[in-house]
Amino acid sequence: SGSSDILDYQLEPVFEKEPLTSIVVEARSVELEVKWRTEALTGAREYRVYRATAPDGSYSPIGNATGYNFVDSTIEPGLAYYYRVGVLDESGVETRSELTARGQLPAAVGRADSGDQNIPEPIGSRNLAGEVTPAISLVATPQVTQNSDQVLSTADTNVGLPHPAELIAADQNLLRQAKLIWGPSTSGSGYRIYRRGPDSGWVQIAEIRGLVNTIYTDTHGLQDDSMYSYSYSILDGDAESSRSEPVEISTKAPLPAPTGLKAESGLLGQVRLQWEQVMDPDTKGYAVYRADCSEERNFDVVQIGETDGPMETSWVDLGVPPNTIETGSCYRYAVETLFAPGGVGPLTPAVRVHTQAR
Fold this sequence. Notes:
The chain is mainly β. 0% of the residues lie in helices and 43% in strands. It contains no helices and 27 strands. It has strands at 20-27, 32-38, 44-52, 60-65, 69-72, 80-89, 94-96, 101-104, 125-126, 132-133, 136-144, 167-169, 178-182, 190-196, 202-209, 215-218, 227-236, 239-243, 247-250, 262-264, 271-274, 283-292, 302-306, 314-317, 330-339, 343-347, 351-354. Strands 11, 14, 15, 17, 18 and 19 form a 6-stranded antiparallel sheet that branches. Strands 3, 4, 6, 7 and 8 form a 5-stranded antiparallel sheet that branches. It is flat, with a radius of gyration of 25 Å.
């Protein structure tokens, strides 16, 4: 939606007490993602992220965010970083949080110095046709392993390969994704990732070339609010080691619908909506739906727009064609929460509104 579609309300310029309820840092393959949660803040315009190399060090601003997360790609693997967040109101007044979160990437993930004898293998290679060959290959149709409902075998299938190191769940309750991390192998050519879901046995979901990349994020068709088991093996050509002991990861429940949806009746040629913010770092915005009033208990709604971010909790329906607003008419509205990757939550209960007659 354009800026003209968003209501402009008077907002409090100063926040009281500690503005954040929590802050965490999650490791990606070559980045650190800072996430935070807040209480319902009236007037929060954006957030400013600060970083230091010691918990009591000098914190410098590294960027701003309008949502509840920030990705820091200007880091060195092996070094520890500390993060804090400030909240800016509509007047630009900032309230700094005293909560601190620490993050660090394993040293092996980074590029080795030219004098290092253990130079990491390249993440991708370019062939003569000009196409990039990815280091991680997803299995388009997951292959079910033999005895898929049985416990994974712990016996090595190739005595020349070491037994895999412990597989660790990097985090729990992530939205439609699971993050894994493990220690690098001393020999072999890569890794193979396996998964067992609530409705299937063990399946192979990915292969990773090279031994340096020991972080994997699974976004391959995961269900909300479900438990998954993961394991991995070490590859060396056609040979494969035993699989690691399984680790269990639960996915996050879908985000709820916004609460407190209200509509202002009696306006000429427009309808104003407002609702409460969904206080979750995975919230990306909201979708607004509309339908003509009817006596039917079940009715279809049509999406008429989306907000520009999670902090915009109001909407003005000006009736842009073909979804025009008629005078003296009755409409129903509902709102849903948008979240990545491409997910939507349930709709709010519909509210009824009448426009002004001429």
